[in-house]
Amino acid sequence: MALFPKAPDQPAVLHALSRVIDPVSGKDLPASDRIDGLVVRGGLVQLVLRSGRQEQQSMERVAAQAEAAIRALPGVANVTVMLTAHRGAAVDAAPGPAATASAAPSHAPIRLGGTAPPGKLLADVKRVIAVASGKGGVGKSTTAVNLAIGLARRGLAVGLLDADIHGPSLPRMLGITGQPEVRDKRMVPIEAWGLRAMSIGFLVEERTAMVWRGPMVMGALNQLMGDVEWGALDVMVVDMPPGTGDAQLTMAQKVSLAGAVIVSTPQDIALLDARRGVAMFEKTNVPVLGIVENMSFFCCPRCGERTELFGHGGARAEAATLGVPFLAEIPLLLDIRTSSDAGTPIMASAPESDAGRAYAALAAKVAESLRL
Predict the structure, then answer these.
(1) Are residues 141 and 260 in the same domain?
(2) I need a surface site. Which of 89, 123, 262, 362 has the fewest CB within 10 A?
(3) Is 138 annotated as a binding residue?
(4) Is 330 among the domain residues?
């Protein structure tokens, strides 16, 4: 099998773009100041071009030419080209440095290019569920990984998608250090612990900071869904980024989500954010499968004494208030943390442990809700 090809560097991409001419200034793209963002990571190229709304048609042709020029480079697996317009700023002519500095920083998307097909993605996946949280630090990714493995242990074909572009954690949690293969310009998910997994973290160095704007994040997420050979799956678990932003809206618009699992800790401040997460999915017509209370209690490994470090029962009470199911209480255990850091999730390495049984119960409830 062919290894993932080495991607060109940014200067090579800019050199390829120098053959594309801006119709307004007559200059090549790098010299025209049309490029609003360019990121090259592991065969994934994201390009943002500045455009005025009244010149959308001509710039769409330029975007197509730019995409073709980049795709012709050796080692390029996927390309996304986006057009954006500065709100309240005249961009019919390519702005100079002074105009760029004074332009408003916000952007309004006009067109999303790339290879992802229009409409709903992941057509071969029977059920797609989002594991989400209103804030970070509540153990959402750990829950998503162990839930996915729990579903796989029930005999289901399961995919796991890391949608947290800015902070991907699946490579570490799954113990994966390699890059995905590419077959016919499509990436192949990496298999681990009975799952087919994909993350932007497979394509970049672990310490790389993903300093991307919203349109580029949405483009990358589209490609992780549409340009990956997922195959037929019973269920896909999507580890969402924390909060209620671009990634959540992209998933709701591009995928037929069967439901969302909200992860929270018991304390009031976390539950406040979980409430916002529930409200967001309700507004996008995504069923909320229920709430998970993570770090629900701590049992001393020596004496067995139970301590409720963050309170207890808050998520159950919140679920009752919101009228959604309460799915599980996951204890705060050292083994959950150490197994995740070691790349051997507790649901795979110790399924008969207390934590393993808690995740298995969660998987059973989710499977029942999805009628799998």
Answers:
(1) yes
(2) 123
(3) yes
(4) yes
